[in-house]
């Protein structure tokens, strides 16, 4: 028996969990922000001077480190991310990996230059459960050229170092 929903995203009657999602709007692109390199933007996000990307609070992960050519994100699985089989949905890992891959490329981009993912190859190694401890995702830019960039990333257990997934990407570089 399915419980009818009374409005988009309404919880079924008798739901025993609730999740509140809060995020900050993307800031207006001022000359100061437009003058920042990709690395400077990411470091400003870590320091709280700029808001993080809203997808991060939606899924429960955060940027913890950014230096030229590499980034680290951490994510917390939970039962709000489960698929019908009772494991954390693969989209959580794919999004975490895509964020690390793109951000690693971003650390090597000059001011005014952006990117977008054109290819994402993800390999899931082991299942993530709701109670899986914090995951660490490390992304590294391999090549950042005039029109394309590539990167690789790995998701490992923050405590035990076990590999959960790895991925590669190709990005198109969008120069002004």
Notes on the protein architecture:
26% of the residues are buried. The termini are far apart. This protein is α+β, with helices and mostly antiparallel strands and 176 residues long. It has 4 helices and 6 strands. Strands 1-2-4-5-6-3 form a 6-stranded antiparallel beta sheet. The model is unreliable at 1-6 (pLDDT under 50). The longest helix has 17 residues, at 90-106.
Uncertain residue ranges: 1-6
**Which class best fits the helix and strand makeup?**
alpha+beta
Mean pLDDT, to the nearest integer, reads 92
Rg, please? Answer: 18 Å
Percent range of helical residues: 10-25%
- Write down the secondary-structure element order: HHHEEHEEEE
Largest sheet: 6 strands, antiparallel
Could you tell me how far the N terminus lies from the C terminus, measured between alpha carbons in angstroms? Answer: 54 Å
Helix count equals: 4
Biggest β-sheet: strands ordered side by side in the sheet: 1-2-4-5-6-3
Number of strands: 6
Please state roughly what percent of the residues sit in beta strands, choosing from under 5%, 5-15%, 15-25%, 25-35%, 35-45% or over 45%: 25-35%
Shape: globular
């Amino acid at each position: 028996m399915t419980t009818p929903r009374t409005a988009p995203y309404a919880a079924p009657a008798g739901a025993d969990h609730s999740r509140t999602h809060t995020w900050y709007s993307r800031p207006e692109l001022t000359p100061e922000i437009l003058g920042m390199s990709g690395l400077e933007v990411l470091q400003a996000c870590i320091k709280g001077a700029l808001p993080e990307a809203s997808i991060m609070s939606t899924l429960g992960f955060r940027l913890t480190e950014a230096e030229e050519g590499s980034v680290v994100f951490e994510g917390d699985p939970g039962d709000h991310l489960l698929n019908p089989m009772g494991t954390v949905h693969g989209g959580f890992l794919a999004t975490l990996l895509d964020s690390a891959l793109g951000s690693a490329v971003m650390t090597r981009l000059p001011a005014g230059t952006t990117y977008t993912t054109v290819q994402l190859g993800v390999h899931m190694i082991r299942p993530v459960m709701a109670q899986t401890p914090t995951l660490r995702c490390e992304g590294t830019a391999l090549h950042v050229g005039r029109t394309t960039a590539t990167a690789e990333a790995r998701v490992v257990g923050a405590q035990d170092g076990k590999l959960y997934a790895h991925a590669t990407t190709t990005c198109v570089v969008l120069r002004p």
